[in-house]
Design goal:
The protein has helices at about 20-25, 35-40, 75-85, 95, 105-125, 140-145, 150-165, 180-190, 200-230, 250-275, 280-285, 295-300, 315-320, 335-345, 370-375, 375-380, 425-440, 450-455; strands at about 15-20, 85-90, 125-130, 175-180, 235-240, 240-245, 305-310, 330, 350-355, 360, 385-395, 405-410, 410-415, 425. The chain has about 450 residues and is α/β, with parallel strands linked by helices. The protein has one domain (about 1-455): Glycosidases (TIM Barrel), CATH 3.20.20.80. The chain is globular, with a radius of gyration of 21 Å. Belongs to the glycosyl hydrolase 1 family. This is Klotho.
Length: about 450
């Protein structure tokens, strides 16, 4: 295979691992932390105006303890040191920093993230910090209806300003919001995820409209007031699937384009192209889709310093509504998705900020994460896609959202039953360590055993 003529990545390529606050931190009442919509949802108490959510599989306590990262900062960062990563993507808990969602801030919350950033600096690990990874303070949901309200954009801007002020001197890469598709669609349209509001498509599209404006406000805040002294970059983590036609007909190919427009393009086109939604959405959704004014289009356009891409188990194959496939076939091809993004969005610099697969919750230390990494190198070397970094998801096993503890995605195994949350490297951690050390793969012959299973999965 031509792929293996090259087995190394470009010099300076960024290798990292990631986590999200609610999935890993635990400590849900420590240090004065406020409740988030995920705390409420996982405790089976429906927010005001929402129907009772369905129980989460194998998650009697949700993320109350999870991986207990709040109390095991050194354990987690020692895992990063062992891997030899160049960066660590983690999220800040809005409700830990601002228990009521607004000022005053929690000294304990500020101190916790200050300690984490100080430890990363000691290790020479670059922080990639997500401001919002799905855990909205419950007070803001109760008071305003969450992201269904335009007020949230202003409150999010204030929260971001606090984070830039306290932590921005140590952070070069910021991500405003993780996977706005899931937040808007499953938080406010289907109600499958917190805050569990079954508002249907109109409310889902309104929430997305507000999320885009919130992101733009934060980008402009950083650009105008913090970039001159801090010199960082800001983007938004957009998730996508890949789709291929049932048949190579013009109609099926157009339906594939529509599928990508309705999931990724919904957020990417306003930010990377012209400040407005894809034409396929405008044509098919009519009055359901809110409109941006000309001033808003100008304000949103260009509000990302790089393209932050999430591709993997959370959106693909789990949280993508079947109607968004338009009767076409979903695929695992990260290479083809990268090529499409490069050509659709004017060849941006791409940072893969989440990618992995998952295994059963009963799996301990043997997995085959390696196969997921084998084929995106070709997008860089042969398709000339400008990918400058990769983030495996996740550093450790944790609370896997709607799947609870029924699956595992970590490089490090966490024994959730043990008091100290025993932390052991899986086979994937050892593989990833060697990959980072070499900045590439071992010789092709070492991988032939994986090829049949990969092609079957694709």
């Amino acid at each position: 295979m031509a792929l293996f003529l090259y087995d190394t990545f470009p010099a300076g390529f960024l290798w990292g691992a990631g986590s999200a606050a609610y999935q890993a931190e635990g400590g849900w009442r420590q240090g004065g932390k406020g409740a988030s919509v995920w705390d409420t949802f996982a405790h089976r108490a429906a927010p005001a105006g929402a129907r009772q959510p369905q129980p989460l599989p194998s998650a009697p306590a949700g993320g109350d303890v999870a991986s207990d990262s709040y109390n095991n900062l050194f354990r987690d960062t020692e895992g990063l040191r062992r891997l030899g990563v160049s960066h660590y993507r983690f999220s800040l808990s809005w409700a830990r920093l601002l228990p009521n969602g607004t000022a005053p801030p929690s000294p304990a919350g500020l101190a916790h993230y200050g300690r984490l950033l100080a430890r990363l600096r000691q290790l020479g690990v670059e922080p990639v910090v997500t401001l919002y990874h799905w855990d909205l303070p419950q007070r803001l949901q109760d008071a305003y209806g969450g992201w269904a309200s335009r007020t949230l954009a202003e409150l999010f801007r204030d929260y971001a300003g606090l984070c830039f002020k306290h932590f921005g001197g140590q952070v070069r890469y910021w991500l405003t919001i993780d996977n706005p598709y899931v937040v808007a669609w499953h938080g406010y349209a289907t109600g499958r995820l917190p805050p569990g509001v079954k508002g249907g498509p109109p409310l889902g599209y309104r929430a997305a409209h507000n999320l885009l404006q919130a992101h733009a406000k934060v980008w402009h805040l950083y650009n105008d007031h913090f970039r001159p002294t801090q010199g960082g970059q800001v983007s938004i983590a957009l998730s996508s699937h890949w789709i291929k036609p049932q048949a190579m007909t013009e109609q099926d190919i157009q339906e594939c384009q529509k599928s990508l427009d309705f999931v990724l393009g919904w957020f990417a086109k306003p930010i990377f192209i012209d400040g407005d939604y894809p034409q396929s959405m405008k044509s098919n959704l009519s009055s359901l889709l809110p409109e941006f004014s000309d001033a808003e289009k100008k304000y949103i356009k260009g509000t990302a310093d790089f393209f932050a891409l999430s591709f993997g188990a959370t959106l693909s194959f789990q949280l993508l509504d079947s109607q968004m496939k338009f009767h076409q076939l979903e695929s695992l091809s990260l290479r083809q998705l990268l090529y499409w993004i490069s050509h659709e969005y004017n060849k941006p610099k791409i940072f893969i900020v989440e990618n992995s697969w998952f295994v059963s919750g009963s799996t301990k230390r043997d997995d085959q994460y390696e196969v997921i990494l084998l084929f995106f190198l070709s997008a860089i070397r042969y398709d000339e896609v400008d990918v400058f970094g990769y983030t495996v998801w996740s550093l450790m096993d944790g609370f896997e959202w709607h799947r609870g503890y029924s699956i595992r995605r970590g490089l490090f195994y966490v024994d959730f039953q043990s008091h100290d949350k025993k932390f052991l490297p899986k086979s994937s951690a050892l593989f990833y360590q060697k990959l980072i050390e070499r900045n590439g793969f071992p010789k092709a012959a070492h991988f032939t055993e994986y090829l049949p299973s990969f092609h079957q999965a694709s």
